[in-house]
Amino acid sequence: MANLADLANDLVEERMERALATRDALKAEMVCHSFLYCETCDAPIPLARRIALEGCTQCVSCQNYDELRRAHNA
After folding, report:
1. How far apart are CA 8 and CA 49, in angstroms?
2. CA separation, residue 64 to residues 19, 34, 58 (Å)
3. Which residues pair with 37 in a beta bridge?
4. Residue 57 has what pLDDT?
5. Beta carbons within 10 angstroms of residue 15's beta carbon
6. Angle at the Cα of 52 (from 49 to 57), degrees rounded to 5?
7. Cα 55 versus chain centre, distance
8. Which of 4, 43, 55, 59 is deepest in the core (most CB within 10 A)?
């Protein structure tokens, strides 16, 4: 016979799995919005870039600079 702790653990595990499955199902519906202005230099981000790269937060110049800096530090 399962004890109370085992039953509670099973219940928590079941609810966690259900919550994660729900979150994963909703992930596809989430839309990532691009910034209108670069978070680094406040320059406007062109519409074409915002459409091409959903969720972009930087202008091309700042993004290039960050990528070069990261590559140099790696």
Report:
1. 50
2. 38, 17, 9
3. 44
4. 93
5. 10
6. 50
7. 9
8. 59
Question: 4-48: per-residue pLDDT in tens?
Answer: 888 889 999 999 999 988 877 776 555 567 899 999 999 999 999
In the beta sheet, which residues pair with residue 44? Answer: 37
**HEC profile of the chain:** CCCHHHHHHHHHHHHHHHHHHHHHHHHCCCCCCCCCECCCCCCECCHHHHHHCCCCCCCHHHHHHHHHHHHHHC
- Say how far residue 66 (Cα) sits from the centre of its chain: 19
Give the Cα separation of 46 and 38 in Å (integer): 10
